Amino acid sequence: MTTDALEARGGQMIDSDFLTQLAAVIRAEDSYGQWDGKDDAELMAEFIVTREERRDIPIIGDPDPDVLWRITKFYDAIGLMIEKRSGCMASQMQKMSHEGFGRIVLIAGKLVVVSKHLRDVHRFGFESWAKLAEAGDALIDSAVAVIDAYPDAARA
């Protein structure tokens, strides 16, 4: 997909620590260097889902494994950003049904710092790069605030 086509789908790629981390998490999966020539927008293009595209995605049947992989990478990046900002490692646990419903939690020490119920995971994505970055930053900010409120539990 060309850069112009990507910009039409997600708008202008923005400068965001979260998006940089998400790209790094995805690149870590590339053990053979096949994505070295791709820029971050190309690498993360599947995270952008327009309203029209969202309407065309059926919610019947098992979620696509690629969608589940993207959800995992999204929350992995959030966990790493939480660790960078708070010093507490946050690891994820997720349980997803074959119908596309589930829950994701990120745990730091003995403290649940993110608890997110998901539904319609078939349609997981964001309308723009800005909305993707905002969603990640909001979860990170909230988790760091919880860690700041209960530091003993987070460091236990």
From TrEMBL:
InterPro entries: NifX-assoc_nitrogen_fix (IPR004952)
Protein name: NifX-associated nitrogen fixation protein
Phylogenetic placement of the source organism: Bacteria, Pseudomonadati, Pseudomonadota, Alphaproteobacteria, Rhodobacterales
